[in-house]
Predict the structure.
Amino acid sequence: MSPELSQLIELQELDLEIQRIADKLASIPAEREQAEEKFNQYAAEFLALKNQHEETLAERTRLETELAETQTHHEKFKQDLMRVSNEKEYITALREIDATKKHIGALETEILKRMEEAEALAEQLTTFAPDIEAKRSEVDLVLASLDRNKAGSEDRVGELESRRGEIAGAISANLLSMYERVAKARRGMALSEVRDGICSACRMRVRPKIFSDVRRGDQLITCDSCSRILFYRPNTTKSAEAVTT
């Protein structure tokens, strides 16, 4: 096989591998999103309970603040009652005392309800928490694995592109241009292995004379059907077609 043909074969294998890894890298964001979405769907009920629990605690805190303020007003009105100077002020103070007393009772009832609600929600959260934590750990492991794969794939692409630069630099400009033109038109497959007299890419049988010339490997020959550059590997167990798999 001619050196140029060997270089083209290696160049194609490099390009196909680079593209395979690039496709894998392109799929990682979607895989991350899918993993997170799956967890979010699973945890939706837990998150709703957690939000409800936090809202209940916040409402309880607000009611307790309002209760403290109302109790302060209630004590003030009781003190005002001791200082009234006429019947009108007396009646007004009594009304305020009665109103704040009723409001205090209502607030205490509401606070008790919120306490009971918070306790019930806390029990449900306690039941859910271990399972949610386990699911979160599983997702984190998946994300960490994807990050490692991404880093490793990027490093591998760098190595392959470096080697590709060396190979491309050793190929004549005209031949490289031809290779890239055919590769662009044929989805990255500028070369095709001939096996049993058949072009592996388009599955068309090549003429016996062409097959004989391809077997010699001392010149560049293209397929009459798909225009790919043909090559032959004696006793091969791995074809260029298999590289795409």
In short: The longest helix spans residues 87-170. Residues 187-243 form one domain.
